[in-house]
Amino acid sequence: MTPAHPAPGPPVRPRRVLLASPRGWCAGVDRAVLAVEKALEQYGPPIYVRHEIVHNKHVVQTLRDKGAIFVERTDEVPEGAIVLLSAHGVAPTVHAEAAARDLATIDATCPLVTKVHREALRYAREDYDILLIGHEGHEEVIGTSGEAPDHITVVDGPADVADVSVRDESKVVWLSQTTLSVDETMETVDALKSRFPELTSPPSDDICYATQNRQVAVKRLAEEADLVIVVGSRNSSNSVRMVEVALDAGAPAAHLVDFAHEIDEAWLEGVATVGLTSGASAPDVLVDGVLAWLAERGYADVETVTTADESITFALPHELRRDLRRGDT
């Protein structure tokens, strides 16, 4: 009698990693971090930095180890010292506080955030009501709101729209925090347009190119990945949004981690394809750590998925470039 053979199970899928490109540091983050490093070299420690230079635990701790001191308020900086302003931007009152304390200021605000500040000033001069789409309490929103506090109302998502009031419905414009989800922002814009049909849009999208590119890339990963891992810190708005974008795009699971050791091995159960990306403030050394961790567990096959090429760079803050040229200390 021929022995019965068990029915074949489902084929074993090969383990692999889909690595997003672009990912990680954007031009604004690269500029801000380099500004702190160059300032430490040029002037020597300590260099005071108002708020975290970027929202990433590893970056902040690395710079702290080199002599950067992170403070939340300008009055924490000794009079006459050097203070570097973070990539998220600050309100004009902060510049006034720094001048009153005779601080040497290096402004590392991302140029794309500066663009939104200038738009806010222009629309305020034209007496528009400005509806700033963003998260209440985020440093970038605080800085932009401070440019024209009498004209700006923060709208923290579609649920806030019903409570918005304006003086003249023919003179109302929306602006946006740069690091939001594109889809999330446009949902709020659509709700605002339903209330205010004459709502003006800014001359160009305020969502930064890096945020858009990274969200497009993570959507592409979500099409094939059983699990998406985003490397980034929980106070990084764009990193948190990328997890949400992955889930909305159909990824069965998506998680945010700062370091490889935070990955739960249970997440890999039944997973053949891992999608891996990182937020705009996360350095690639952290991604390398996750790749090594995954390789040890059989995910050694890495395929890069490219959805855009980025070649944008930003010059260092002009105050720092001036002193580097002159060799001042």
Keywords summarizing the entry:
five-stranded parallel beta sheet; 329 residues; alpha/beta; four-stranded parallel beta sheet; 36% helix; 10 helices; flat
Which helices and strands occur, and which strands form pairs?
Layout: E1 16-21, H1 27-43, E2 47-50, H2 57-66, E3 68-71, E4 82-85, H3 92-100, E5 104-107, H4 111-125, E6 129-133, H5 139-145, E7 152-155, E8 172-176, H6 182-195, H7 209-222, E9 227-231, H8 237-248, E10 254-257, E11 273-278, H9 284-295, E12 302-306, H10 318-326
Parallel strand pairs: 1-11, 1-12, 2-3, 2-4, 4-5, 6-7, 6-8, 9-10, 9-11
Helix pairs in contact: 4-5, 7-8
Largest sheet: 5 strands, parallel
Radius of gyration: 23 Å
Number of DSSP-assigned strands? 12
The neighbouring-strand order within the major sheet is 10-9-11-1-12
Work out the helix count.
Answer: 10
Outline the low-pLDDT stretches. Answer: none
**Helical residues, percent:** 25-40%
Q: How are helices and strands ordered from N to C?
A: EHEHEEHEHEHEEHHEHEEHEH
What structural class do you assign from the helix and strand content?
alpha/beta
C-alpha termini separation: 92 Å
